[in-house]
Amino acid sequence: MIALILTCVVGFGAGAFGVANAALIHGEEYKQKAESQQLSDTTVSAQRGTIYDRNMNILAQSADVWKVYINPSKIKKEETRVQIAEGLSEILELDYETVYAKCQKSEYGYVLIKSQVEYNKKTEIVEFVESNKGFNQIIGTENDVKRYYPYSNFASTVLGFTGADGLGLSGLEYYYDDVLTGTPGRIVTAKNARQYEMSAQYESYYEALQGDNLVLTIDQVIQYYLDSALEQAVIDHQATYGYGIVMDTDTGAILAMSTKLDFDANNPYEVTSQAVLDEIDKIEDEDEKSQALVNARYAQWRNRTVSDSYEPGSVFKCITAAAGLEEGVVTADEMFNCTGSYQVKDRTYHCSHREGHGVEDFTTSMMNSCNPIFIEIAQRLKADTFYQYFEAFGFTETTGIDLPAEYKPTANVTYYTGNRLGAVELASTSFGQSFQVSPIQTITAVNAIANGGKLMEPYIVAATLDENGNTTSETEPTIKRQVVSEKTAETVTMMLEKTVSGGTAKNGYVAGYRVAGKTGTSEKLPDKVYYIGSFCGYAPADDPEITVLIIIDEPKGGQYYGGSTAAPVAAEVIEQTLKYLNVEPQYTEKELAELDVKAPNEIGKGVDMAKSDLSSQGFTVKVIGSGDTVISQTPSADQVIPKNGLVVLYTEKDTETTKVQVPNLLGLTVADANRTAINAGVNIKISGYTSGASIASYRQSVTEGTEVAMGTIITVSFKSSTNVAD
């Protein structure tokens, strides 16, 4: 009995202890192990929110792709392992050895082979599985998501890109990652004792939720204008970079923002600059070469309009002028004498025109960009007052734009505080040197003058929408403060308008639109070997719609002043943007006299009548064919051509279009370019600044030697090379 009792006690006790140990002490652990064996829990990737421009054009969008995986534990034969490795590596264009190694992991039930597989490849995988018995238990596919950028490098430094995990790594994709990222879904399926999935009645599906969409203030068309102009400017001036911003004057909304050179957001790790790649290839040390490649990638991802800093140069003179006028230490018509230099303690500062401009009023000193006069204004203001305006215009703080990695100014490192502004520091700061600002700070400050003295907070996301298109948030324009009075802003605008119409910023002139602006040129710190040329202005000056900043970084080839490098680019962007925004041009009588005209429609008329009609309007006429009636013409009816342009009339149906070669139209005056074009059988559309002396063409839209139809219109850009030093 004792033995029986002990046996029962010990036996049942051990059983009870085992149950208690399993249920109470290790219950959760065993539960998880059981679930891992009995359940398959697959994550369903969520669609990332779409990014639209202000007109709902898609700039970034996610689409369905697939992951391809295998269950190596189901591979029982070496023959099967080899066959699977060969098939998958060939279809998915992967290294065979890598895939084979994954097939050897027999202790695993899930091994990822490749993610973000496109539909056509996924179809090949399915066909491969179906054509081989038993492969359906080894090879599988599941939903994945891939980010697409329809326009490749379009605004890529602004949009940024995502990583393989779908998370934002730069630009708006990074800054708004929590908004754009959706909530992943799940598919939970049951498995039987042999680890095969059971029927659908044992499956639970939790739907993935798409992230919110972004509607930007960026306008696709204006962005294209800015991108194209900057890209060409970088080529023209052999510059390292070109960057610019177009801002809505009233609201501070960013209509366009560009950095050239940039990258393809669909292939962000591919270095796009061949010159950079050539330099990297010259590096012999592999570690050094690898690091250079990493640095090149980071460099092309950088949004330099927000993250870089530079000395603004003479563009800053409009800020000094606004402070002086607001404080009443100067008036627009006060007379000065520019002797060509200004002495401050042991430092001599020179005007860009070293001989001096002589007697001039304050407005003319702005037009001539006279450093000595602005030093005098700063000395009158004194350090404390000058610093108050420096601070009020936003140069001591970030702008608050909704983009990552904004440059952050540092007191007494990137700028001088009031108590550290000695006479020398005050003098150099007055005309835009000895301190650093970012491009977004510069345009925000100048925009305050354009906007009647109101400093706006710039922004780039106008609204967020849910997947059904409902607005979940909306950005309201924010006035940070009133920096100067409307009267002061109007006076500075008048001065800047004259600076464009006849001063150092003359190459920023646009026929039909009153442009106010200032150019700047500064040496790059710390080496001071290269320059930065810039232009910042707004238009129309009497009722500004847009504010534009253009910066040409490290221009080479002899021209480096902002008046030569940046102002023509700004003029191009301003003209195209205002016309796109349907801002009606207001031409002066002189501009009207020089305007191009529309080609009249001569089709169907007799040849003699057509020739007489065209000649009476000042056109040059060329007749091709021996017919009596005009069958077709080049340029076509209503196409804009010069008043004395060439019209080619064709009089026979099957006559081939007469071809001519485009002549060299660079380095010519307007008259010479017109004459050369007509003699060669083409027309020119004149663009840029064409008044005054030393005007020469610097760009033609179709390269020399290109074969075109006789009468084709070639756009030729002109600019002045004198009195543009700033």
Task: Give your account of this protein's structure.
The structure is a single chain. This protein is of the alpha+beta class and 726 residues long. The chain contains 23 helices and 31 strands. Strands 2, 3, 4, 5, 8, 16 and 17 form a seven-stranded mixed sheet that branches. It has a five-stranded antiparallel sheet with strand order 10-9-21-20-19, sandwiched between helices. A three-stranded antiparallel sheet has the order 1-6-7. Helix 3 (78-91) crosses helix 4, helix 14 (362-368) crosses helix 18 and helix 15 crosses helix 16 (423-430).
Short description:
It is built from 23 helices and 31 strands. With 726 residues, it is α+β, with helices and mostly antiparallel strands. The strands form 10 sheets. Strands 2, 3, 4, 5, 8, 16 and 17 form a 7-stranded mixed beta sheet that branches.
Considering the chains and any ligands shown, give keywords for the structure:
726 residues, 7-stranded mixed beta sheet, 5-stranded antiparallel beta sheet, 23 helices, 31 strands
Mind sketching the topology for me?
Elements: H1 2-25, H2 27-38, E1 39-44, E2 51-52, E3 58-70, H3 78-91, H4 96-103, E4 111-117, H5 119-130, E5 139-148, H6 156-159, H7 171-175, H8 177-180, E6 185-190, E7 204-206, E8 213-216, H9 220-236, E9 241-248, E10 254-260, H10 274-281, H11 286-301, H12 304-307, H13 317-327, E11 335-338, E12 341-344, E13 347-350, E14 358-361, H14 362-368, H15 371-392, H16 423-430, H17 439-450, E15 454-456, E16 461-465, E17 471-474, E18 479-482, H18 486-502, E19 516-523, E20 531-539, E21 546-553, H19 562-565, H20 567-580, H21 589-594, E22 597-598, H22 607-616, E23 620-624, E24 632-634, E25 640-641, E26 646-650, E27 659-661, H23 670-680, E28 683-688, E29 695-700, E30 707-709, E31 713-720
Parallel strand pairs: 2-8, 23-26, 28-31
Antiparallel strand pairs: 1-6, 2-3, 3-4, 3-5, 6-7, 8-16, 9-10, 9-21, 11-14, 12-13, 15-18, 16-17, 19-20, 20-21, 22-25, 24-26, 27-30, 29-31
Helix pairs in contact: 3-4, 9-20, 10-11, 13-15, 13-18, 14-18, 15-16
